[in-house]
Amino acid sequence: MNNFLIDNISKDSNNSIKLLSTIHNSWRQRSMVGKETPDYLNYNVDKPDFIEELLPFSEHYIFNELDCSEKSKILSCGWLVYNEKTVCIESDIVTPSCNDILNNKIPGLSSPIIHKLVCETLVDEAYHILLVKNANLICQYKRDLKNIDFGEFSLADNLKREQQKHPEQWKKRLIQLAASIVSEIFVSDYLEQLSSNNTIQPFNQATVAAHRNDELAHSKIFTEITKQMIVKLDATQKEFLVRMLAQSVLWFANKDFDLWSRILVQLKIRKNKELINDCREDNEVALDKIDCSDLIDLCKSVGFFDQAWAIQIFSDLNIDVE
Ligand SMILES: [Fe+2]
Ligand SMILES: [Fe+2]
Q1: What's the pLDDT band for 41 if we cut at 50, 70, 90?
Q2: Which is an annotated GO molecular function term of this record (predicted)?
């Protein structure tokens, strides 16, 4: 298919723009939009919806003493939570940043290629919301979990609270963008844990694999647009961005114990308070479950970690930059 932007791309474009052009050129082929969706007839009620290791309390004795039907309900809720977190990332984190870019509110990101890629990303993300909402609907019907109320995710909550601390619009937008960059870089790893697991529900695995296919491209897009933006930031903005990137890692890795507490109460799991309180005391943030290497590589490639203060910001939050 002819592509005006690709046909007219300048030979002098930098490497980021060239890479972004290639990703844009392959969007129709790569994107899951319009492709066949996972078949709900493959839903097998005898298979677990989720993996125990991803539950933030899977090693606690109270969870391990539960009977099979209680564990099965919790695993199904694990799947529902996983998908609702995806909806939160797509709608509350990434979409507002995409809108800021399209409205030319972010320095260095006004090129036509970037705007087209951002439009394609928005189409992908809207489709992912449809994909995971559909998956949750099927799970809720099959497992009789139609009335579970999740409430807010800490990721969106922490982001909003941080934005409220800063009256400056540029800071609010950089906070949003930092959370988007971190989410878009981490989300494919987050999805990989389920897309490569053969013990879970085949329908769920297929749903996650379809989503991950797009997110591998999004991770590259957000890495490259970050490089494009950073060269246009002044020293104060750069320092603020580094701080917010590091902070966003903790937000992304938060185990959402408040949300789980609400769910376990609704499922009437015995000793649920003790279970949550014990695990919360242990560790509120699962940094050990997060692979930060792509984010660290990005920070290195733009020279952030040539500065001792930037390394210090990450180490103060116990994020290993080596
Ligand atoms: Fe997505
Ligand atoms: Fe994405």
Answers
A1: confident
A2: oxidoreductase activity
